[in-house]
Amino acid sequence: MKLFLDTANIDEIKLAAQTGLIDGITTNPSLVAKEKKSFEELLQEICSIIKGDISAEVTSLEIDGMVKEGKHLAKIADNIVVKIPLTQNGLCAVQKLKSEGIRSNVTLCFSPSQALLAAKAGAYIISPFVGRLDDISEDGMNLIQQIVQIYNNYNFETQVLVASCRHPLHVVNSALIGAQIATLPYKVFEQLIKHPLTDIGLEKFLSDWKKVNTK
Ligand code: E4P
Fold first, then answer.
1. Number of other CB atoms surrounding residue 185 within 10 Å
2. Does 131 contact ligand 1 (Cβ within 6 A)?
3. 28 ligand 1 Cβ < 6 A
4. 163: CA distance to ligand 1 center in Å?
5. Is 164 in the pocket of ligand 1 (CB under 6 A)?
6. Could you give the domains of the chain?
7. In the chain, what are the helix, strand and coil shares in percent, each to the nearest 5?
8. What angle in degrees, to the nearest 10, is found between the helix axes of 88-99 and 63-76?
């Protein structure tokens, strides 16, 4: 399973990259707005740190605008994946970009029917947002289960990227279901590593080790 970091913050990306466990990055307009650097500057820097897929989102709503922005973003680096919103125009833009060899991550997916259409359009990645569904008392992980089953039924190659992960269980359940990718905030990445019994066990081992004659 691939783990992506959901951030445009260079410090977080550098820290996480040191672990060697981060396979890609997802950004969105809200994440980019938190940073001081320009969008292109950020993307160039991110692509130089992480060699896997880096998602960069278009902001046009019309097909031609999305395609134009997508082509521009794709030129920044070979590992850019163009993020396209799941709208009717977006699904058309995905097909046009694909015909030019540009990969799309279709974002803001909240239903299995949307995911089915994104796969038919030829999306490279589909991004269902589990946390935002949970926020409105719907079951985000159930959506992942449904999408994985639909894609398996028809051998769609579109990869399922579980987005809007809020806690480690979202990641673990994504892995159990068999989603190819989960993208997570840096805090959730840290939470995946930590366990209180690991800390307690390590403290005890180290204090006992002081009683051992190592001379
Ligand atoms: C995914 O690509 C999005 O950037 C992201 O996961 C959204 O997460 P949020 O719902 O926590 O904003």
1. 19
2. yes
3. yes
4. 5
5. yes
6. 2-213 (3.20.20.70)
7. 50, 20, 30
8. 50
Longest CA pairwise span in the chain (Å): 74
The protein residue whose alpha carbon is closest to atom 10 in ligand 1 is 164
Q: What is the pTM of this model?
A: 0.96
What average pLDDT does range 59-70 have in this prediction?
98
Helices 140-153 and 112-121 meet at what angle, rounded to 10? 40
pLDDT in tens, 72-126: 999 999 999 999 999 999 999 999 999 999 999 999 999 999 999 999 999 999 9
Q: Token match 């840096």: residue?
A: 186
* Distance of alpha carbon 15 from alpha carbon 102, whole angstroms: 29
Nearest CA to ligand 1 atom 12: 164
147-198 residue pLDDT tens? 999 999 999 999 999 999 999 999 999 999 999 999 999 999 999 999 999 9
Q: Which residues are catalytic?
A: 83
